[in-house]
Design goal:
The complex is a heterodimer. Chain A has eleven helices and ten strands. By secondary structure, chain A is an alpha/beta fold. Chain B is an alpha/beta fold. Chain B has two domains: 244 residues, 3-Layer(aba) Sandwich (Rossmann fold); 37 residues, no CATH class. Classes of the chains: A alpha/beta, B alpha/beta.
């Protein structure tokens, strides 16, 4: 069964005014449990509006949103539970830290779930482990942490609610390569430990190429593609036409293919490209 | 070549919460000369001191020891601060934090107005600056309706209108999508080439740094590597050691060479990588 299903979802901003625009329009999509979906699309394509429908921060102007088979707006009083089930972590989440200590900040979500003190503590420690924050940092003020640590503390706050669906908006923005790597690894760690479905909004195609199982491409308020990473990158020229940057390595392989080398269209990592080129070049030497 | 910004054995540290908490040096003995009209990219992992280095150029931060000289003016001398800020303009990461007016052209005029320039001249400068960044058609637009890349170009126009000799950009593309990144980078490159404006750009994107004339890599507050992009990016082991990568094009050529293929490895961009592979293929 699909864990997320959107049925003809449209969201209009400024509905009923002359300024009405559809940020997303007639979206039909089903996401299977356990996928790691990279959501890409250029600014204004509807990515943020889309993800805010998944935990009921926005309600559709038209259409229905199903999480685990249930229409989340069937019973409006229930929407709070949907927010525990679908954890949403916004861009630059470190700006949303507010508590006196890191521990209290991470505990904020579980506390709202009315869990026991013991359970809350357990959840906080577990989440801190997921993101690799050492115990001695938990009693510090979040404002004394480094930028990278703040980001991890903020993401831990969402993970502590143990959402079945974890949605992250640009979690690696502004980080150096090693910082990116560690954020991606902690997402994978969380997914492996909990079996959660993960949605990752990003401009960074290299991130998507590395960890996603599927890619959802948004363009002009609609879903342009939803397919495996390989199949999506095989349309690299189309992606570039709608203003997305495919990995440099994909562009290199595409050009080499045009110039006569027998290469696959859908190469997207340096290792793959190297493996594909080696037999060709070794043959060339002979 | 004429020196425009000089760092002479500079150290800097941020203040701890009280006297018992003395933080380590963020900049730990940096000596650098930036040449007039050059395009310099600064790389380094988070916490390496990149942004601090940028903020030392126009007296937002002052060195604990050593000197920063802007066109010969010492940043530590308070009398120089205003003058230095007319010589070095800064663009920050977040486009939403640096726009002050409700109409694009008013925002660009904000700097020159504060310099007390006469209205006619301001008009001329604002038009010229907006044309230079390709935003003239948006001069009457409301900034909040612009894309991130457009906002950053308006911020750059605001600096052009002050006619500073140098622009320091602190990760100007970090929050932008690929289109916005391209817009901003090509604007900065053009201003450097056509107007001779000295550019110091902090970035995390190796592909952007590869287009500079000179790349400086900071690590733990010190200059770790300093040279042409070709010099720097061929040292992939050293880069990895300080948490950085090489552009994918360079990485591919290197990976092929490591597997025993005879191939040129000092490639910086797609075209050079493609040429190198085709050459290796034909041989």
């Amino acid at each position: 069964m699909s864990i997320i299903r959107l049925e003809n979802v449209t969201h209009n901003y400024g509905d009923g005014t002359p300024l009405c625009v559809s940020a997303i329009k007639d979206i039909n999509i089903e996401i299977e449990s356990g996928e790691l979906v990279g959501i890409i699309g250029h600014t204004g394509s509807g990515k943020s509006t889309l993800i805010q429908h998944l935990n009921g921060l926005l309600s559709p102007t038209k259409g229905r949103v199903f999480i685990e088979g249930e229409d989340i707006w069937q019973n409006k009083k229930n929407i709070k539970n949907v927010r525990f089930k679908v954890g949403l972590c916004f861009q630059y989440p470190e700006y949303q830290l507010f508590e006196e200590t890191v521990f209290k900040d991470i505990a904020f979500g579980p506390k709202n779930m009315n869990l026991s003190e013991d359970e809350i503590k357990l959840r906080v420690l577990e989440a801190a482990d997921f993101v690799g924050l050492s115990r001695d940092l938990l009693e510090k003020s979040p404002f004394d942490l480094s930028g990278g640590e703040k980001r991890r503390a903020a993401i831990a706050g969402v993970m502590a609610m143990k959402p079945k669906i974890l949605v992250l908006d640009e979690p690696t923005a502004g980080l150096d390569p090693r910082g990116k790597e560690s954020i991606l690894n902690m997402i994978l760690r969380y997914k492996k430990a909990t079996g959660a479905t993960v949605l990752l909004v990003t401009h960074n195609m290299e991130d998507v190429a590395r960890i996603a199982t599927k890619i959802l491409v948004m363009n002009r308020a609609q879903v342009l593609m939803y397919d495996t990473v390989k199949n999506v990158f095989a349309h690299s020229e189309e992606l570039e036409k709608i203003g997305l940057a495919v990995p440099q390595i994909t562009r290199i392989c595409r050009e080499l293919k045009k110039r006569g080398l027998a290469l696959d269209e859908s190469i997207y990592t340096v290792d793959e490209a190297c493996a594909a080129l080696l037999p060709l070049l070794q043959k060339g030497v002979r | 070549m004429e020196k425009i910004i000089e760092y002479k054995d500079v150290t800097f540290r941020y203040e701890g919460e009280d006297e018992a908490h003395i933080l380590p040096l963020t900049i730990n003995g940096v000596t650098l000369n930036l040449e007039k009209g050059s395009f310099v990219a600064v790389l380094g992992r988070n916490g390496s001191g990149k942004s601090t280095l940028a903020k030392l150029t126009n007296a937002i931060h002052l060195p604990e020891s050593g000197q920063v000289l802007v066109e010969g003016l010492d940043t530590r001398d308070e009398k120089n601060t205003d003058l230095i800020r007319r010589k070095v303009g800064m663009v920050f990461q977040n486009p939403d934090n640096q726009i002050v007016a409700t109409i694009v052209e008013d925002d660009v005029a904000f700097g020159p107005e504060n310099l007390g320039i006469e209205p006619k001249e301001i008009r001329r400068r604002v038009d010229d600056a907006l044309k230079a960044v390709g935003m003239y058609d948006f001069r009457l637009a409301e900034p909040h309706k612009l894309s991130g890349g457009q906002k950053q170009r308006v911020a750059i126009a605001g600096i052009l209108a002050m006619q500073t000799d140098s622009i320091v950009l602190d990760e100007p593309t970090a929050m932008l999508d690929p289109i916005g990144r391209r817009e901003v980078l090509s604007t900065v490159l053009r201003l450097n080439r056509e107007r001779g404006i000295t550019v110091l750009m902090i970035t995390h994107f190796m592909e952007e740094a590869a287009q500079a004339e000179r790349v400086i890599v900071l690590d733990k507050g010190k200059v770790f590597l300093d040279g042409s992009p070709r010099d720097v990016f061929t040292q992939s082991e050293a880069l990895k050691r300080c948490g950085l990568d090489v552009p994918q094009a360079t990485g591919l050529a290197k990976a092929l060479a490591d597997s025993g293929i005879k191939i040129k490895t000092d490639v910086l961009n797609e075209e050079e990588c493609i040429d190198a592979i085709l050459t290796a293929y034909k041989e």
